[in-house]
Structure formats: structure tokens, C-alpha cells
Amino acid sequence: MEPSPPSTPMHKSRSSSGSFDAGSIGFRDMEDGSPGGAGVSGADGGFGVGEGHVAGGSFDVNGSFNENGSYNASGRGSGGGGGGGGGGGGGGGRGGRMVRGLVIKAACVIGGAFLLRKLTKSTTRWDHARAVAQSLSGEKFSTEQAARDPMTYFNIRLLACPATVSADGGKVLYFEQAFWRTPERPYRQRFYGVKPCPKEMKCDVEVSSYAVRDTSIEEYRNYCDRPKDQRPQPDEVLKDMAEHLNTVYLSACERGRRCLYEGSTPPGGFPNSWNGATRCTSELSILKNGEVHCWDRAYDDDGNQVWGVRQGPYEFKPATISSSTGSRMQPDFLTSFNSKKIEDTASATSSMD
């Protein structure tokens, strides 16, 4: 749940002889396997093509053209006398400069193309999915928000961790939600399936929520807090993924914004029958600083909101010492509710399902 960096222009200059000077240009083998032998940088920063590289950083073509237009590998003209040889030598000098110029131009074009391709390599669909799965994982709290507005928001702990990989290669996370004071007693347990959006959809990552099979739900309690050898195994996780609850479709945020990914359920939401609702919607944002913002609301047949926060999304921030110990205001506020009312209210506040 990228724009390519700007490429750096390559500057070319001409030497006093009129040929291109490649001393300021150097190419290395690219990661995608492009050949390096076509233009290997010498010790002085110049190009060496084959065995023609000389210590000064120029190209020694070792050849000239005869007066009749044929090429003489020895570099000497083969005219009818000394004048012919001299004329051939002059032609060879001009031909050598022409060859050097063409070789350097070709090297610049080819090398520049490879560099541009490397710099503009786009992020793949699976890169986006991995980034979203990683961002959702870990321990997060709504402590600061609950301290600012205790009448609206509870101090809730979210915890998610990798559980397995689905048959189509998607990441499966185990997720649970609890009050910060009782993390060992989560009131919501879910699986999240994270994978790329289908190619025909205008999004990058889809995050689907699944219920945990009723007969196995106790086996997953505090799953992420336990050693791996004391958790249900990956093949068991796939069997215990039960009813599909909803799917949020995320897109990468544009450069310059606070978020990395944001999205929502489709406009009509998904079916939901809790507390008189007929459908529910979810909005999800993943921020660059590690925060996760989610806003879940449910409506009845008449379009009336029957549960969920009205003011705005829950803001979950990565765990810190202060967030894990909770705010001082929150316990006093919570004591005014009986336990059943607290759980009924909070179960409709933030779920991403």
C-alpha cells in the first residue's frame, strides 16, 4: 500500500584538436548486466575501447586512410611517393578524429540510456504490498489522541505481525486490538491479507480483513507476543482464515504529502449487521512517520450512522514508553463506565473492518 529521481546531465567538452574529451565521463557496469567492456574508465577518468586506450586518456586508433579511400592499418599512406605517404597520413589524422568523435558520442548515448533506465526503474506492485505490510506491523497506540479528547477516543493498542504467506504470494498478518491497560485481553482479532491490487484497478495495494475461525480464536490470543514455536504454524493460519469482512484499496500518495498510502473501501462499503447496521465503510492512511490512521463507520438502511466515531479517524502512533504506560487522564475517565459499556463502545470505534 514513484516518481523517478531526476537524471544528471552529462557534460561534454572538446579538446584543442577538435575531438571530444571523455576525461570527465566514466561508466561502470550497470546492475542489469550491461556490458562494461564497451567503455571502461581508465585510471585518469578517460575511456579505453579495446586496446586503444593510452595513458593520456585519448584514443589511439592506429590507422589511417589511403589516398584512394582504403584503410591502412599501419597508419601510413601508400601513395606513389613521399608526398603520397604524407597525404595519406593527413587523411588518417582526420579519419582518426572522426572515429574518436563517433565512438565517444555512441558511448555517451548508450551509457546515458542505461543510467536513465536505472534511475527511472519504477516501484513494482509487490514492492508496494511489502511496504504496506511492514507499515501495518508492530505495536501502535492512540494514547496522544485519547489524552487530547478523552470523551471521543479511547487509548487503544493495535498489534500486528506476519503470520504466513497466501497461495498467491500475499502477506498475511495477524492483528489484534485491546485497551492499553489490558493488552492480554484483546476484544478484536483478525487476519489481514495484503497484496497488490489487480492490474485492472486504479490502486496499488489491497488490504482485506478476515475473521479468525471461532473454534481457533483462543489459540491466537496474544499471538504476536509469543515465541514463534508457541504460535499456530503457517499452514494452520491459512485454515483458520474465516469470513471475509472487507477490503480497503490503497494508492501511493503523491510526493510532498505526509502519507505514504491512503485509501478506503468502495463507496457502498461492505455488509455489516452489528448494532443495527446494514453496511460499513473504512478509510485507512499510512503516514511517513509510522502512524496509521483509520476511520470506520456503519450505517443503517436509511443512511443514518449507527456506530463509529463521527469527529475523525483514530490516530495510532508507534509505541513509545509513554504510550505503553497510557495517559493519566484516561483511567479516571474510564472509571465512569462499566466494563460492558466500554467494550461495546470501543468495539465500534476502530477496526478496519
TrEMBL record:
Per the UniProt record, one Pfam family is CpeT
Q: Which domain of life is it from?
A: Eukaryota
Q: Which GO terms describe its molecular function?
A: lyase activity
Q: Does the keyword Lyase apply?
A: yes
Q: Where is the composition biased (Gly residues)?
A: 34-45, 76-94
Q: Where is the composition biased (Low complexity)?
A: 15-26
- Xref: InterPro entries: CpcT/CpeT, CpcT/CpeT_sf
The annotated region (Disordered) lies at 1-45, 70-94
Gene3D superfamilies in the cross-refs: CpcT/CpeT domain
Q: Keyword set for this entry?
A: Lyase
| Family according to the record | Belongs to the CpcT/CpeT biliprotein lyase family.
Q: Which PANTHER family does the entry link to?
A: CHROMOPHORE LYASE CRL, CHLOROPLASTIC
Name recorded for this polypeptide:
Uncharacterized protein
**Species name:** Ceratodon purpureus
